[in-house]
Amino acid sequence: MLTIVGLWRWRGNALARRSDRREAWLSLWAAVLMVVGVPLVGWAAQEATHDAMLRTAHEQQRDRRRTWATAQHVIVRPPLDSETETAAGQQPNRNQVTARWAGPDGSSHTGTLVLRTPVRPGSRFLVWTDRHGRLTSRPMSPRGAASHALLAGLGAAALTAAVLEAGRRAAIRLALRRRYARWDEEWGRIGPDWGRTGNSS
């Protein structure tokens, strides 16, 4: 940013080199792109992701439904991390339940799932199934779709900013390398005559 501020001061300075002006303009355009381009990229990515996620949420809500299942066999297993305790006390056990339920066409289905709540053989509980009667997860809600879209927009904006900054740093590094090469060339030309009087240098 100091280079950008100095761009206006260098406009009529005879000591300002062309490389200094180029670096200042490069930093200025990189800053403009970050201020203007990064939010636009994030917004576009969020809108595109939100539309896709919303369509997915609507499809899941249309194809999935809650079905009553009957527990047949229950195996109580300890928590994954039995040493970790929550604020309310020890973590609940995991109940591995083999259950039976009816599909949309009335066919019988059997499957195994893990529940956090205590279940006894013969008790009924609700599960999510798809159009074929297979176990599935809860459908995505519009709020969940919006949250995923927001994260996608933030990720796209952060990635764009990182790419712009990496490009700016690479361009500045290349400009410095060229400047040092020119300095070495100039020093090789005038170095032997340095400090001598009466020379054209």
- How many strands? 6
- Helix-strand makeup class: alpha+beta
Mean pLDDT: 81
Number of helices: 3
User: What is the CA-atom radius of gyration, in angstroms?
Assistant: 33 Å
**Amino- and carboxy-terminal Cα gap:** 36 Å
**H-E order:** HHEEEEEEH
Largest sheet: 4 strands, antiparallel
The geometry reads as: elongated
- How helix-rich are the residues, as a percent range? 40-55%
Biased composition (Polar residues): 85-98
Keywords: Membrane, Transmembrane, Transmembrane helix
InterPro entries: MT1774/Rv1733c-like
Protein name: Integral membrane protein
Describe this structure in words.
The strands form 2 sheets. Strands 5-4-1-6 form a 4-stranded antiparallel sheet, covered by helices on one side. A two-stranded antiparallel sheet has the order 2-3. With 201 residues, the chain is of the alpha+beta class. The radius of gyration is 33 Å and the shape is elongated. It has a domain at 20-59 and 147-186. It has 3 helices and 6 strands, in the order H-H-E-E-E-E-E-E-H. The model has no long low-confidence stretch (mean pLDDT 81). The longest helix has 49 residues, at 142-190. It has helices at 2-9, 18-63, 142-190; strands at residues 65-77, 85-86, 89-90, 94-102, 108-115, 124-129. Strand 2 and strand 3 (89-90) form a beta hairpin. Helix 1 packs across helix 2 and helix 2 (18-63) runs antiparallel to helix 3.
